[in-house]
Amino acid sequence: MADTHVPPRARDLPPLLWADVEAADVVIHAGDWVDVRLLDALESRAKRVIGVYGNNDGPALRARLPEIARVELEGLRLAVIHETGQAKGREARCAALFPDADVLVFGHSHIPWDTTADGGLRLLNPGSPTDRRRQPRHTHMRAEITDGRLTAVELVGSQQAAPGADPHTHPG
User: Fold this and answer.
1) Which GO-annotated molecular functions does the record name (predicted)?
2) 82 CB contacts (<8 Å, ≥6 apart)?
3) Which CATH superfamily is 15-157 part of?
4) Which of 56, 73, 104, 113 sees the fewest Cβ atoms within 10 Å?
5) Is 103:122 a contact under the CB 8 Å cutoff?
């Protein structure tokens, strides 16, 4: 997940996302949490959280989270960052910045993204579960790793907003 913006855009995450958090072996958050209480809640309900801070995250979150996270999950080399710059040239730029990663999870745009750069780096943006902006639905992703490879990625979305979400579209 990314760009949850709790509480300005919603009081909480959607129930479907909380169910996915509790079922997952690892939860990844690519920044723009906004309130440290969401990090606390995720850490209390998830088996493992990997997260980074975003441009809307203040000192309390920046004190607990890195700008870039790099981990290995079952042999898959994963990097997480909030911002990757403009869409044009993203694959080549990120492949150059993350040569030792197999998958890069990012946020910021609130626009779901799933592409593969020359050289094999997979770039994933789960969108936003609380602030869909110009997208047709609120989204997050589910993924599976098998034998050190990303074997399944599913964009999960809902027309229904998170509890307390602003029902209006937020151009950005």
Assistant:
1) hydrolase activity; metal ion binding
2) 2, 30, 31, 32, 52, 53, 54, 55, 67, 106, 107, 108
3) Metallo-dependent phosphatases (3.60.21.10)
4) 56
5) yes
